[in-house]
Write a structure and sequence with these properties.
This protein has 474 residues and is an alpha/beta fold. The chain has 19 helices and 15 strands. The strands form four sheets. Strands 9-8-7-10-13-15-14 form a seven-stranded mixed beta sheet, sandwiched between helices. It has a four-stranded antiparallel beta sheet with strand order 1-4-2-3. The protein has three domains: 95 residues, no CATH class; 122 residues, no CATH class; 210 residues, Rossmann fold (3-Layer(aba) Sandwich), CATH 3.40.50. Helix 14 packs parallel to helix 15. InterPro entries: DNA_methylase_N6_adenine_CS, HemK-like, RF_glutamine_MTase_cyano, SAM-dependent_MTases_sf. Keywords: Methyltransferase, S-adenosyl-L-methionine, Transferase. It comes from Tetraselmis sp. GSL018. GO terms for molecular function: nucleic acid binding; protein methyltransferase activity. This is Release factor glutamine methyltransferase.
């Protein structure tokens, strides 16, 4: 979950978001994030299948992603705040390859992202380019129409550049390969196809210089039109729901209605957990929990980390959500990443399903609802209309209701020395909780846990917003 500031103004990063924060442009902030994370990629290249990837190609692909990055509902940034995400996806050969052949027999095949479905259409390259060109030409007009739809929309609606980026992602996910004259099929991503065109392709299209190539696609031009005009622009459905996927760290998560779209800021909770384990390796030997798991992003990423740590017991992560629909999506993603033995998805409110491990948890991560109820009407249409309210609303006043519930759960479930990191709205909300835990004074409802937790402090997100509360069970 994200702050009112973040959720209202973020479109994520295929990850850019609707993000006007403290004066800096979203593009400037995304570039800054990419620079900070370049070191992470270089240091973690050994974790990738490096035979598929060279350092130079990371930089090249990342530069491309700055121009074609994916977001929540419209976008202004990288696929993920972690530049490592791009490297890892490339190294695994996931870039637009069709994984449906590996998963088509799964009971979860209906949740396959568009980019992983089988190609069932033959589409003229010229017709696809004509559609894309016309849609891009209308982007300015469409963006203005979205801004005029009601209060709060002008600041938080996607720009023409956002819409053009989303169009590129739709085409990228739709194209599976090239259909030869002899009936053969050659797997090729959209970028591979475009690289072979005269540049600029718009002029080549007008001049008749674009070859009459036949593409194998997962969506027809008619389906693209329906999804774009009706679902995206008219109904304001988030692009992640339309394409069925969200790029988060080194994961490609299946997402859809009933599941909160993972935000890029939340990636940092994994960084905080890694740092805690590095400081105290014993934390890797106990069970962990992700409270309010949603898509399962935190649980899946955390399980991967724990599996890579030497310990005297198998990795064990409890992914808890009160919503059966969200838990279903989490289970889909656990299975997608082959972590059924490491992650237990449980339906229940906060600590209710954790009775078997009460007092034993080595750590808890949580991205709880924290937007004050009165701010919900100001959320961007994509969030307000389509994402689950249960995952957004933190309650009246300061919106601390769910956060206090997490603290109460952590007090019972964590073992002494256990680690807790949770996301907040940022600013006053995060600092008020930390101050209450450290001082034992004040009106913040978290004050009653002052004797339960130690070393409470606030950590800033990638954009400099003081967002994360970190503490330890006393």
């Amino acid at each position: 979950m994200m702050s009112a500031t973040s959720k209202i103004t973020r479109f994520e990063v295929r990850s850019f978001g609707l993000v006007p924060r403290s004066g800096s442009s979203p593009f400037t902030k995304a570039v800054a994030v990419s620079c900070l994370n370049t070191v992470r990629i270089q240091n973690r290249l050994s974790d990738c299948q490096s035979n598929f990837l060279k350092t130079d190609s990371i930089v090249l692909n990342h530069c491309e992603s700055l121009q074609a990055s994916r977001g929540y509902c419209g976008s202004r940034g990288l696929r993920s705040c972690s530049l490592f995400a791009t490297a890892s996806l490339q190294s695994r050969g996931l870039r637009n390859s069709c994984l449906a052949s590996h998963r088509s027999g799964s009971q979860y095949s209906s949740e396959l992202p568009v980019a992983e479905r089988k190609a069932v259409h033959l589409t003229s390259l010229r017709k696809l380019l004509e559609w894309l060109g016309e849609a891009e030409d209308r982007a300015g007009q469409d963006a203005q129409a979205l801004q005029d739809q009601g209060p709060h929309q002008e600041e938080h609606s996607p720009s023409p550049e956002n819409l053009k980026a989303e169009l590129a992602w739709m085409v990228e996910d739709a194209v599976a390969g090239v259909h030869g004259d002899d009936g053969s099929f050659s797997e090729a991503g959209w970028r591979d196809v475009v690289r072979g065109l005269p540049c600029p392709w718009r002029e080549a299209l007008c001049g008749g210089a674009v070859p009459d190539t036949v593409l194998a696609t997962r969506l027809s031009v008619g389906e693209l039109t329906e999804l774009w005009r009706k679902r995206r622009l008219e109904e304001r459905v988030p692009i992640q729901y339309i394409l069925g996927s969200c790029h988060w760290r080194d994961l490609v998560l299946a997402v859809g209605p009933g599941c909160l779209i993972p935000r890029p800021e939340t990636e940092q909770l994994i960084d905080l957990a890694e740092a805690a384990i590095a400081s105290d390796p014993g934390l890797a030997s106990g069970p962990w929990a992700d409270l309010g798991t949603g898509s399962g992003a935190l649980a899946v990423s955390l399980a991967q980390i724990l599996l890579n740590k030497a310990s005297d017991r198998p990795a064990e992560v409890w992914a808890v959500d009160a919503s059966p629909e969200a838990a279903r999506w989490a289970n889909v993603n656990v299975i997608r990443h082959g972590l059924q033995d490491a992650v237990r998805v449980a339906v229940g409110k906060w600590g209710e399903p954790l009775a078997p491990v009460a007092g034993e948890l080595a750590g808890i991560l949580s991205n709880p609802p924290y937007i004050p109820s009165e701010k919900l009407p100001t959320l961007q249409a994509e969030v307000r209309r389509h994402e689950p309210r249960l995952a957004l609303e933190g309650g009246t006043g300061d919106g601390l209701g769910a956060i206090v519930d997490v603290l109460e759960c952590a007090a019972e479930a964590l073992r002494p020395g256990g680690f807790l990191a949770l996301e907040t709205e940022g600013g006053h909300q995060a600092q008020a909780i930390a101050d209450a835990l450290n001082s034992g004074f004040g009106s913040c409802p978290a004050v009653r846990f002052a004797d339960v937790f130690a070393d409470a402090h606030v950590r800033s997100d990638y954009y400099g917003v003081p967002r994360f509360l970190v503490c330890y069970r006393a």
